[in-house]
Amino acid sequence: MRRIRITLAYDGTAYHGWQVQPGLATIQGCLEEAVAGIEGRPVSVDSSGRTDAGVHAEAQVAAFHLDNRIPVENLLRALNQVLPRDIRVLDAREAAPDFHPRFQAAAKTYEYRIQRTPICPPFDRLYVYHFPYPLDEERFVRCARLFEGSHDFTCFAAADEKDALGASKVRTVWSSTVRREGSRLLFRVRGSGFLKHMVRNMTGVLVECGKGNLDEAAVRERLARPGAFLPGPAAPARGLFLLGVEYPTDPPSSPAPL
Amino acid sequence: MRRIRITLAYDGTAYHGWQVQPGLATIQGCLEEAVAGIEGRPVSVDSSGRTDAGVHAEAQVAAFHLDNRIPVENLLRALNQVLPRDIRVLDAREAAPDFHPRFQAAAKTYEYRIQRTPICPPFDRLYVYHFPYPLDEERFVRCARLFEGSHDFTCFAAADEKDALGASKVRTVWSSTVRREGSRLLFRVRGSGFLKHMVRNMTGVLVECGKGNLDEAAVRERLARPGAFLPGPAAPARGLFLLGVEYPTDPPSSPAPL
Residue A47 sits in which domain range? Predict the structure, then answer.
């Protein structure tokens, strides 16, 4: 049996996130339906991780088993033909039989996009967090660097994730940087893994820093005292993009556009 | 009574075009409802021209009468608060009592966007015509220049516009150019006025030229022999943007981002 690895982009606006939920449109649900149509039986599709409702991906990685002997180029075309236009398969290839996009991921990169113009262009409304209010962007940039390193990110995890006993909330963030691109503030973070809502909560805390409600000491405290603070506030899902996933076996800088 | 002029951007995807139609969502309908909410009585909103269902605008110009003495800055904010997020008022100002955005328009600029990558990025799907097939782009560029000048554009008008007796179909196109921007082919046309479906039909004919089905002589013939050819094929609405409208009384290069 083959193991197929795909890279896909999606606009999360219309979906209740990655994970299959009965009766709701999800990315995983659409993919499993599309692959099942080719395979002729139900197929389960794994990914590098769930994305929340409304979160987008420029290069999510997923994998599934396949008996069908269709060449990967044709598989890519066939999937894009049946998938809705807000989900696109960018790449399809043969993978090792034991390839798992979540357990073998070495790094993931997310970007959070904040629109700073007084009026949000209608064409960007689903892909940015429109924040036209005063913001100390220098402080935002400075505080973002504090996330770098290995920390217990309990204070940045979704409330329902905090209750999972035993699972470590320590993650390593290799880079956490902010740049201005035109009228947008782009917060990009690359790390070993991310807890549920982690990037949205990090962004929300940075916005509070920029507004003057929190400072560098407050961010440091949230990293040093896991569980001492309620997470968030979470920035809205629509500004968040999964940019790419890296695997140890991949050649450098491939396949995700990092 | 005041005359207010507004510049607005909209994502046409969810609308049945500019013009009010009973029971259907239209740009004009949304605006008239928003202005009526401020004025406390029905208000009719004029524009520089109708746009088709699915066509977008970066800077449409509209105008309406108002008794309410709300300052224009507050009016702009109030309108954006009640309008859906896919319609944004970019500018609001006092205009001459007889200002009419259609009858006084001196020039309009449209842009048609064609996506040339094999796979259409999901985030662009509503804002481009995805044409991944072979296309002689040099011929496309060359043929676009043939539209420049004053011509009878009957062969590029919507079929239902051809029957309007007496109205001249002569329009002047000052510039009609194409450029490649990354993976997109951008056809930009600036002229004295445009017939219904004219830019979409021009684009469709240029695509036929690029595909090798039509040549420069065929384009010239369509301009020289009004009514001798069926219009089109029309390129899809979603690739078309109204970029701006110019008025003789405006200072140069204002207010539209041309």
Answer: 2-95
Domain CATH number, residue B82? 3.30.70.580
Choose the final residue of a domain: A51, A67, A95: A95
- CA A49 and chain centroid, separation: 8
What residues in A contact B89, CB-CB < 8 Å? 119
Question: In this complex, how many residue pairs, one in chain A and one in chain B, have their CB atoms less than 8 Å apart?
Answer: 44
**How does pLDDT run across A75-90, given as a tens digit for each residue?**
999 999 999 999 999 9
The answer to whether residue B252 is domain-embedded is: no
Domain end (from B51, B68, B95): B95
Nearest chain B residue to A81 by CA distance is B119
Measured over the CA atoms of residue B155, residue B53, residue A115 and residue A178, the dihedral's sign is negative
Q: What is the pLDDT of residue A160?
A: 75
pLDDT tens readout for residues B193-220: 999 999 999 999 999 999 999 999 999 9
For residue A171, give the nearest of A184, A160, A155 by alpha carbon.
A155
The catalytic residue among A11, A46, A52, A67 is A52
Please check whether residues B141 and B221 belong to one and the same domain. yes
Determine the distance in angstroms separating the CA of B166 from the nearest CA of chain A, rounded to an integer.
Answer: 39
> Which residue, among B88, B112, B104, B76, has the nearest Cα to B206 in the 3D structure?
B112
B118: in domain:
yes
Closest chain B CA to residue A91: B119
Average pLDDT in the B26-51 region? 97
Q: From the candidates B80, B119, B128, B238, which should be mutated to test the interface with A, based on the most A CB atoms within 10 A?
A: B119
- Asked if residue A165 has pLDDT above 90, the reply is no
In chain A, how many domains are there? Answer: 2
